[in-house]
Amino acid sequence: MKSDLQSRAAIRRSRRNRKTRYRKSRFSNRKRSKDWLPPSLMHRVLTIETWVKRICRYVPVTVIAMELVKFDTQTLSNPETKGIAYQQGELFGYEVKEYLLAKWGRNCVYCGKENVPLEVEHIEPKSIGGSDRVSNLTLSCRCCNQKKGNKPIEEFLKKKPDLLTKIKATAKTPLRDAAAINESEMEAVSYSGQHS
Fold first, then answer.
1. What are the tens digits of pLDDT across the range 175-188?
2. CA atoms within 13 A on the CB side of 101
3. Tell me, which fold does domain 92-173 have in CATH?
4. What is the Cα–Cα distance from 119 to 147, expressed in whole angstroms?
5. Which residues have a Cβ under 8 Å from the Cβ of 194 and sit 6 or more positions away?
6. CB-based burial of residue 99 (10 Å sphere; 0-12 exposed, 13-18 middle, 19+ buried)?
7. How far apart are CA 142 and CA 98, in angstroms?
8. pLDDT more than 90, % of the chain
9. Residues near 143 by Cβ (< 8 Å), separated by ≥ 6?
């Protein structure tokens, strides 16, 4: 095994050292195919395909209809959005932290401490699917931020249901699922059309 690996390394080394400057740069092997999807979305498509095949084993399925939808995430967040607001977005004229200070007040959302250094905090932790959208960000003191860690907010505030309700009402509804459908719906159709 060792000698095979050494001979392979020698062949590769000689290939790298050859004078191949006359060759044109090649980038064709670095392109993604047209039906490429991020692995998380591809998993959704393949899971649906698997379940359709399983159902077809037991039930005589003659037709499968697929509802194609597209969500306007801007108006889902704020139905009043129109005109130039589409280009500017909700952070227009703000730095992220200044926006959060204006939105949540200048105190820790979990314990209410004032006049302490505040840190930007993910309401739904990134480790369990939370995003960096401002609707998923808030401010907390270091102590609360460390206590919460990567716990879901429901678990962290299970003894404070009123505070949990208030935070969820102030934060906008997460649009993770809508964004995933927008990203994958056309790709899923082309993928299932090619592999059916």
1. 555 566 666 654 54
2. 12
3. DNA Binding (I), subunit A (1.10.30)
4. 13
5. 35
6. middle
7. 18
8. 2
9. 111
C-alpha R_g of the chain: 25
Q: Are 174 and 131 in contact (CB under 8 A)?
A: yes
Question: How far apart are the C-alpha atoms of 75 and 156, rounded to whole Å?
Answer: 30
Residue count of the chain, please give it: 196
Residue with tokens 């050494």: 6
Token pair 């005589």 in the structure block, residue: 60
| CA–CA gap between residue 188 and residue 184 (Å, rounded) | 6
* Encoded tokens for 7: 């001979």
Residues of the chain with CATH 1.10.30: 92-173
Give the span between the Cα atoms of 9 and 28, in whole angstroms: 25
pLDDT tens-place string over residues 44-82: 888 888 988 898 888 888 877 777 666 666 665 666 666
